[in-house]
Design goal:
This protein has about 350 residues and is α+β, with helices and mostly antiparallel strands. The chain is built from twelve helices and eleven strands. The chain has two domains: about 90 residues, PH-domain like (Roll), CATH 2.30.29; about 230 residues, no CATH class. The chain is rod-shaped and about 105 Å long. About 30% of the residues are buried.
Length: about 350
């Protein structure tokens, strides 16, 4: 008496060596699998392989000769295999899918570890790389940066030529006292959205805005500002900031796999120099450098404090936001440190 047929699962069968599908049925009878396709019934031999159990993905049974039975009935397929004693445990992808929350936690933890590692490594790498670049190359970077800023931020200066010569002489006095090369020059521009400001670009030049000259007409105070920028130049802070920004951009681009982000590398590092500013320690180091330099050059020791006081009068409450949470020290803190003792 023939045994009763067991559970069945409908699907399609792809014979070995062909991509032509045949309507097929997989049957379990007495613990044995058989496959009906193309009007023929064939037992499923030992050594077959079963695809992983993934949500929304068709299941497949692959025969030793390469033929494949495929079905969309994943739950019925698993139940049929269970009647034959096949343990449908799934592979790595199945276990990851079943542990989605754990995977998400691990992914977040990995991302945090990566960010913390980069926060430690990138500043150190930026400092080292900045001091490996020859001065001539650094000056080329600075000139290229100025060209970029002239196209997108600055406007030509409106200062009279006599005033420009007078301020350039003041700057040269500081530069020569500091022992910096004559290639380090002072440039004048209208700051526009940058307003009253001074910026030391890598390798020189130092850019002084018309708005800063209008705000701080006193020579001793301007000398304090320019000496501060020479402090950034001396320590290569601007170059370090550009390298640091570029390394962050490359790291994030590689992590998320967006190659298009690399095309913004140069422009992004240039804007970072203007918008992100320097770190707390960089600003303090530049202030300390400025106090020593202005004293050696014969300027009033209170010039930097006077200049910072004038700058504080033009800004909002965010002048002092750096005291706790920001990477920049607040102006009030810097003024107190810059006052003559």
């Amino acid at each position: 008496m023939p045994s009763d047929p067991g559970p069945t699962v409908d699907g399609v069968f792809y014979p070995a060596g062909t991509s032509r599908p045949l309507a097929a049925t997989l049957t379990a009878t007495g613990g044995t699998l058989s496959l009906t396709a193309g009007g023929l019934i064939r037992p499923v031999p030992d050594g077959f392989r079963v695809s992983e159990r993934l949500t929304g993905v068709a299941r497949a049974l692959t025969l030793p000769d390469g033929g494949r039975f495929v079905t969309e009935d994943g739950s019925g397929f698993s139940a049929l295999l269970a009647t034959c004693g096949h343990r449908d445990r799934g592979g790595l992808m199945t276990r990851l899918e079943q542990r989605g929350r754990l995977v998400m936690v691990l992914l977040v933890a990995l991302t945090l570890l990566l960010v913390l590692g980069l926060r430690l490594m990138i500043p150190a790498a930026s400092h080292w790389l900045a001091h490996q670049i020859p001065p001539a190359i650094e000056r080329q970077i600075g000139r290229g940066t100025l060209t970029t800023l002239d196209h997108g931020l600055f406007s030509p200066t409106t200062l009279p030529e006599e005033e420009q010569r007078r301020l350039s002489a003041l700057f040269n006095r500081l530069r020569d006292t500091a022992g910096l090369p004559p290639e380090v020059t002072l440039e004048f521009r209208q700051g526009n959205r940058l307003k009253a400001n001074a910026v030391a670009l890598p390798g020189g030049p130092v850019v002084l805005t018309d708005e800063m000259v209008a705000l701080i007409p006193q020579d001793d105070a301007l000398a304090g500002i320019l000496a501060h920028e020479l402090g950034h130049l001396h320590a290569r802070h601007g170059l370090q900031q550009m390298i640091r920004s570029s390394l962050w951009l490359v790291s994030v681009t590689l992590y998320i796999g967006d190659d298009a982000g690399l095309s913004d590398l140069v422009s992004g590092s240039t804007l970072a120099l203007i918008d992100s500013g320097y770190s707390r320690d960089d600003e303090r180091d530049a202030d300390t450098y400025a106090l020593a330099l202005t004293a050696r050059a014969g300027f009033s020791p209170g010039g930097l404090a006077d200049a910072l006081t004038a700058l504080r009068s033009t800004c909002r409450t965010d002048c002092d936001s750096g005291s706790l949470l920001s990477t920049h020290p607040g102006l009030t803190e810097r003024i107190e440190q810059a006052r003559p003792r």
